[in-house]
Design a protein that fits this description.
The protein has 457 residues and is an alpha/beta fold. The protein has four domains: 129 residues, Rossmann fold (3-Layer(aba) Sandwich); 173 residues, 3-Layer(aba) Sandwich (Rossmann fold); 74 residues, Helicase, Ruva Protein, domain 3 (Orthogonal Bundle), CATH 1.10.8; 60 residues, Arc Repressor Mutant, subunit A, CATH 1.10.10.60. Helices cover 46% and strands 14% of the residues.
Length: 457
């Protein structure tokens, strides 16, 4: 997109000279003789930069600046001023001008300043784009689920996000605890400040303290310089402490102090450092049981547990699985330039699987399937073996107490074939028998049907 610069000066020679000087900026250059003409030009089209004289008839530069800030806040403003009006130009910067230049204008300095304005503008636009992208990525719409359990979760997140309350997120590995923590942050007044995530279970006691609190130079071997910790980085924002249940009692004492006093010392330091940080902690353990067993401090538990969010495992919200499957499929279709769909039978197998790794496992599996599947539709044969042979999907097997071993074997073969769409070659592999043995059993149990084309696969 071509940049637009508006030059405002009541002296024609100055306007024309500045236009000539800025031709190298590859921009559309507009001219106005005073502030009123400039406002008319701004009303007709968006302008990236206004370069305006301070002293002009009818409307001076300061009044023009005030109008620009109120009516065109995305437009940058540079003031041109003489020696006797430098104080006013400095005041203009306090009001919102990007910078000022002394007249007569040094043309090299002018071009450098204009380039700096455009670079800063592009950086600001990129930051805004990234912030919007992050907000979209971590909005409520990306926590997928229509089940009653998920609707309750959405309601709690909406209520707690605008507050300062500490939050404890409990759930099995892979249920999306960090996604919930980010949704809380990016839907809170702290959204423009840092979100800092730390996996407490991945660091030793000493490393965790240094990582979170920072350290002073010389506080331990290898501490060659002072280093700020994650709590300082997260000031005015949110810190997410994952696997909080893995921390030591000594660390828990220090964390309790931060929650109570909002201050701490760096490792090896003596000066208290004040911070304003919201804490969202997460664990895959039942912290109340950890407290009862003496492995987690009770006072810290209640400080963290101002609001508790329990994330249900995926097996307890099977109705959400089709939504998640289609969500991930659309995502990977975009990434890999594909138009894959999924057959109803394959979707049913995914819905019936127990998902020990929860949503994270489903996402990883869908990415793998989307890459490896040939053709345009995901069929049961494209799914991993464990999906079709999940021991927890007992609804596929009509087994009951008192059934003979012969009848149980017949039912197992029937159910396996049904789950695999009749693919006998794959059924033999899943059942752990040779193909000839399976064919003999099919004939014996009168289960033999037409061979599928994929049986030779």
């Amino acid at each position: 997109m071509t940049r637009k610069i508006l030059i405002v000066d009541d002296e024609k020679n100055t306007r024309e000279g500045l236009r000539w000087a800025l031709e190298s900026q590859a921009a559309d250059i507009l001219l106005a003789a005073d502030g009123e003409q400039a406002l008319l030009a701004l009303g007709e089209q968006p302008v990236d930069l206004v370069l305006s004289d301070l002293r002009m008839p009818r409307m001076d530069g300061m009044e023009l600046l005030q109008h620009v800030r109120e009516e065109h806040p995305a437009t940058e403003f540079v003031m041109l001023t003489g020696h006797g009006t430098v104080e006013t130009a400095v005041e203009a910067m306090k009001v919102g001008a990007f910078d000022y230049l002394m007249k007569p204008v040094n043309l090299e300095e002018l071009n450098l300043l204009v380039r700096r304005v455009f670079e800063a503008r592009e950086l600001k636009q990129e930051n805004e784009r990234l912030r919007a992208e992050v907000n979209e990525r971590y909005g409520f719409e990306n926590i997928i689920g229509n089940s009653a359990a998920m609707q309750r979760l959405f309601q709690v997140v909406r209520q707690v996000a605008p507050t300062k309350a500490s939050v404890l997120v409990q759930g099995e590995t892979g249920t999306g605890k960090e996604l919930v923590a980010r949704a809380i942050h990016y839907n809170s007044p702290r959204r423009k400040r840092p979100f800092v995530a730390v996996n407490c279970g991945a660091l030793s006691q000493s490393l965790l303290e240094s990582e979170l609190f920072g350290h002073e130079k010389g506080s331990f071997t290898g501490a060659h310089a002072q280093r700020a910790g994650r709590f300082e980085t997260a000031d005015k924002g949110t810190i997410f402490l994952d696997e909080i249940g893995e921390t030591s009692p000594e660390f828990q004492v220090k964390l309790l102090r931060i929650l109570q006093e909002q201050e701490f010392e760096r490792v090896g330091g003596i000066r208290p450092i004040k911070v304003d940080v919201r804490v969202v902690a997460a664990t895959n353990r039942d912290l109340k049981k950890e407290v009862d067993a003496g492995r987690f401090r009770e006072d810290l538990y209640y400080r963290l547990n101002v609001v508790k969010i329990d994330l249900p495992p995926l097996r307890d919200r099977q109705d959400d699985i089709p939504l998640l499957v289609h969500h991930f499929l659309q995502q990977f279709n975009r990434e890999h330039g594909r138009t894959l769909t999924i057959a109803p039978k394959a979707l049913q197998l995914l819905q019936n699987y127990s998902w020990p790794g929860n949503v994270r496992q489903l996402r990883t599996m869908m990415e793998s399937i989307s890459i490896l599947t040939t053709g345009k539709e995901i069929q049961p044969r494209h799914l991993p073996n464990e999906v079709a042979t999940d021991p927890d999907t007992g609804q596929h097997l009509r087994l009951k107490v008192g059934m003979t071993m012969r009848d149980a074997e017949r039912e197992l073969i029937r159910a396996t074939l049904a789950e695999l769409g009749g693919n006998k070659a794959r059924a033999a592999r899943v059942l752990g028998v040779g193909r000839k043995t399976l064919y003999r059993k099919l004939e014996e149990y009168q289960l033999a049907g037409e061979d599928k084309p994929e049986d030779g696969a």
